# Entry
Amino acid sequence: MEKFRKVKRIVLVLLCSCFIGVACYYYYLTHYTRPVVVANQTNGAESKYVKNMSDKEFSAYLQGQADKSQFRLKMESDMFFEKADKVGKVTILNSNSNHYAIRVQTTIENQEAIIYDSGMIKPKQFVENGELKKAIPQGVYRVNHHVIYYELTNLKQKVGETVIVGQLAINQ
# Structure
């Protein structure tokens, strides 16, 4: 009987220690593990040489990636036309630091019809004058300039779009 109690105590102590060990291990896994890093869109192709970079090289690499994702556009948001059927003042500059071609399409606010289309503007190119696609009566209108970004290698592949609010003034 005494032997049975000793075995029972030993088994109970072992079970308790196993339970405490499993509980501690579970707590460690859920609270103290590093976040899982998922590879980006490169499918690991860049990771071969990123591992061997120094801190300065890696910092320069990341800065280059950030610069590629930025976009600089100089655009006069107001358009001026003496007459709706004449050439008017439109100012758009696609900066040489950009990695995308752009196209600006203008609509009058709350309307879907495109009244101006710049065509494709590659980096280092600009537009100073333009013509309206349809006749519009004299007045001042609030317009939306839809700036659409395209890949330089494939001008049909749309990358993104931004809307700039401006005004259209037609004097006669």
Remarks:
- The helical segments are 2-31, 47-50, 55-69.
- The CA atoms of residues 42 and 150 lie 20 Å apart.
- The chain has two domains: 2-67, 72-170.
